[in-house]
Design the sequence.
């Protein structure tokens, strides 16, 4: 079955381009590319990690005597997926281990449609156990997979500041842009609120609902301050690991399931959310080096086209090629971030990526795309070599 998310990607990108053109104040190029590269990385690794969800689900379904059919399967599937999504989503915000698998989605200090695609590499692993009960209720694997995809697709459009409040009936029942802006904000009154996927009724029912009543400030209480998707995915795991090593006694274990605001008793407490918000001095937004926008945009589109082709033709590439594709997507995200942040070693990292580019395209799609990649790589190597020479200090 073709991945529904892959089919939707061109429409996602078109909607992002339209929003960016009509409301550029909601976007920063470096932040948007970082978000999109997180999504590319998640989809690239998803061909491996999604098996962690579907294989045990299918096994449990096969061992379950009863099985739903027809409309009942779809009704139970859609409502059940949405409820289980709420449970998983709430856990990811209320435990350190869960936060490590979800924090990527919240790291951006802007809020726009691109942020919907900013996803963690490990979210499929952490969410898998939450959906397994649906198999016991008789929801077939194929129905579950499509319901989960539809739940994800719905949530794309609510990541925007361009849409205000909807009619009262919609705000009462559905997760809307207004409700989800609250969820992405670090305002103290908004923290750990509005976990819904499609139906906001779960938050109203379980006491986690908060209406939008003040201007949201986006990001995380403890900012990552990096555009690198690899750093984004590993950052909070590093925080937990350090607290585990530095903590004492059972606190070394507690840190993994305690709230992200908790620390072992022998360590300094994190600043409270209100103090952290008051101490903010602005966005993490280093000045873009000259030429960054056209260069990164061209290569982002190349990476995106490669990923889209690989996702729409899932049987075309063998597993080793898919693994290489996933690693190369992460390398591209790191290289783009190094460019945005003015890292002195960016030229070497990008050269390494470009040298391997034709081989990755060859393994994934064949000789014609590989030839195109070779032309792109040679032209880009020439460009960055010329740029490096221009930046060398001159002697007299």
Sequence:
């Amino acid at each position: 079955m073709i991945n529904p998310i892959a089919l939707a990607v061109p429409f996602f990108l078109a909607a992002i381009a339209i929003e960016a053109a009509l409301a550029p104040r909601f976007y920063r190029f470096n932040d948007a590319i970082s978000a999109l590269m997180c999504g590319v990385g998640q989809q690239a690794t998803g061909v491996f990690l999604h098996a962690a969800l579907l294989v045990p689900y299918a096994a449990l379904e096969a061992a379950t005597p009863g099985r739903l059919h027809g409309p009942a399967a779809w009704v139970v599937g859609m409502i059940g997926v949405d409820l289980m999504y709420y449970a998983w989503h709430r856990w990811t915000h209320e435990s350190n281990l869960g936060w490590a698998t979800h924090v990527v989605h919240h790291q951006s200090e802007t809020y726009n449609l691109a942020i919907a695609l900013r996803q963690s590499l490990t979210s499929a692993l952490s969410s898998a156990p939450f959906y397994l009960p649906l198999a016991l209720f008789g929801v077939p694997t194929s129905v579950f997979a499509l319901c989960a995809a539809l739940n994800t697709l719905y949530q794309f459009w609510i990541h925007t500041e361009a849409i205000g409040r909807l009619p009262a009936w919609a705000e009462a029942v559905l997760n809307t842009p207004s409700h989800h802006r609250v969820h992405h904000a670090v305002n103290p009154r908004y923290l750990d609120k509005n976990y819904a996927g499609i139906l906001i009724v779960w938050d109203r029912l379980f006491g986690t609902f908060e209406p939008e009543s003040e201007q949201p400030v986006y990001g995380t209480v403890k900012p990552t301050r990096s555009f690198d998707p690899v750093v984004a995915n590993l950052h909070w795991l590093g925080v937990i690991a350090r607290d585990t090593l530095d903590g004492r006694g059972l606190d070394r274990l507690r840190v993994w399931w305690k709230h992200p605001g908790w620390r072992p008793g022998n360590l300094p407490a994190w600043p409270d959310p209100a103090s952290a918000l008051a101490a903010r001095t602005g966005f993490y937004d280093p000045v873009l080096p000259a030429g960054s926008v056209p260069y990164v945009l061209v290569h982002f589109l190349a990476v995106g086209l490669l990923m889209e082709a690989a996702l729409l033709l899932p049987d075309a590439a063998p597993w080793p090629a898919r693994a290489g594709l996933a690693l190369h997507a992460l390398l591209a995200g790191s290289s783009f971030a190094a460019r945005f942040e003015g890292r002195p070693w960016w030229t070497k990292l990008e050269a390494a990526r470009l040298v391997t580019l034709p081989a990755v395209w060859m393994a994934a799609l064949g000789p014609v795309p590989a030839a195109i990649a070779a032309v792109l790589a040679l032209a880009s190597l020439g460009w960055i070599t010329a740029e490096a020479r221009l930046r060398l200090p001159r002697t007299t």
